[in-house]
Amino acid sequence: METVSRYPFSRLNLRNWSLSAILLFALTAFSPVLVASDARAEFRVCNGTQNLVGVAIGYRAKEGWITEGWWQVPATTCATLIEGELQSRYYYLYAEDAARGGRWTGDVNMCVAENEFKVTGVQDCFARGFQRMGFKEYDTGRQGSWMVQLSDTPGTQESHN
User: Is residue 45's pLDDT more than 80?
Assistant: First the structure.
């Protein structure tokens, strides 16, 4: 005659349940570590408008002031301008709305070019064949990551890490 356990937590089931519980506990306990490792350090720009936006960035590097562009950021999307841990405290941004011609500017003059560019130095832009545009300064407070949200409403270009 076959013996059937009336208890679902028989010794065999209890042992399997214990192993499952330990495994579940280990996965739960270490999941924040796994999730945290997915976090990426970067400088991102998000386009909260309904139009394509061209973006240029400026920053201080070992070789001096650098400006780079153009990132084409479609409506309601984000683009990573700098990948990895941010090396500077201050970053500078200039952007143009491709459809309406609106601009996100600031008081810090830097060099840009008509097409894709990477320029070293911010002096004598015109003499070197570049244009000069006013970039807005963002103080990252030495955070590892930073994000700028561009919007249609002036004064709402919020930045945060």
Answer: yes
